[in-house]
Design goal:
By secondary structure, the chain is mostly helical. The protein is about 65% helix and about 0% strand. It has 4 helices and no strands. The longest helix has about 35 residues. The protein starts with a helix and ends in a 41-residue tail after the last helix. About 5% of the residues have low confidence.
Amino acid sequence: MVRRPVAWVVAVVLFAEALGIAAVNWFLGVVVDRQDMSLAGLDPNVMSVSSKVGGLVFGAYFALCGLVALLVAVRDRAPAGLGRILLISAAVVHALLGALAWGLVGWTAFLFMVVVLGLIVLLLMTYDAQATPAEPADAAPDGGKGADGSPAGGSAAGGSPVTPPPAPTTP
């Protein structure tokens, strides 16, 4: 199947992206610090530190999303709860970054963001297709027939008895 390889690829890409984002922001913080630049009177030290902290936080976010994808790949189970929310938010972030990258950086950065977005969506969708409703616990494995060949469930109509809905009450 395609589920596990996609999960492995998403995990590797998100870990690499986390490292790249953190490194680029750290580099930008160092450049601002060494050039002693100021933007509209802001303190250069504050800009440098905020760039470094922002890069580390954003990198940690992508690393956490990569960890969720890694757990999906190892367990071969759909992400649930917070992990699913993290992967959906990473898909939204990549869609927004792709839209910004088209205008600010160019089509190659846009293409990268769209590919990562597609991989994350593919990861989420392939595991959704696996989650089919389970067979009821009282379903007979032999096609609904009892031991004597009569319909299972004990009802003469051929199915399990149905409880009527409660009678309506009027005030």
